[in-house]
Amino acid sequence: MSAIKLIVGLGNPGAEYAATRHNAGFWFVDELAREGGATLRHDSKFHGLAGKARLHGEDIWLLQPQTFMNRSGLSVVALAQFYKILPDQILVVHDEMDIPAGQVKLKQGGGNGGHNGLKDIQSHLSTPAFWRLRLGVGHPGDRGEVVSYVLKPPRREEQELIDAAMLRAQNLLPRMLKGEMNIAMQQLHTDESKQRPHKPAP
Q1: Positions at the binding site for tRNA
Q2: Taking 70 as the threshold, does the pLDDT of residue 198 lie above it?
Q3: Which CATH superfamily is domain 6-195 in?
Q4: What family does the entry list (predicted)?
Q5: What does each C-alpha distance from 28 to 94, 127, 154, 162, 165 come to in angstroms?
Q6: What 3-state class would DSSP assign to 80?
Q7: pTM of the full predicted structure?
């Protein structure tokens, strides 16, 4: 299985969006940049902020598209083609409303779940076969409130849960960077099952 060579965090550019749920992917990549001593600089040919980090002995590209969410694919395909990175060597980190805040899941391929960033990346790469790290942010419960929900900051207790989930995912990066994606996925989902409150037996 291919090792991850590019980690893309999804979000919207601009200070007014920085703390919103939709920018969870940006938060994750910011943490990796700090850990890997990388400076993300604007690169016009990649339509985003890009930088190379040294993480767990591996060189890895980090990218935050600056195209707004629904055109994220433009940025991803530009960097991937330039450095000859294949779809299964790409990890896209994004907010996921179908998962409660504080949970995180790893998967390859599949649908986009109505997420405009994923939809555009699939379109530009001509395949859904890239990896996704899905950071749970919860759901407002009313489909009519989805847009306003993801464009607002999480409550403080939600933010703490999301931060803890991101840390659990970061701990599995050594596996991902070696191409041990199935092991990382199994370990992450085992860890996640321990995080969920268990119902008491009747």
Answers
A1: 17, 68, 70, 116
A2: no
A3: Peptidyl-tRNA hydrolase (3.40.50.1470)
A4: Belongs to the PTH family.
A5: 9, 24, 15, 10, 10
A6: helix
A7: 0.93
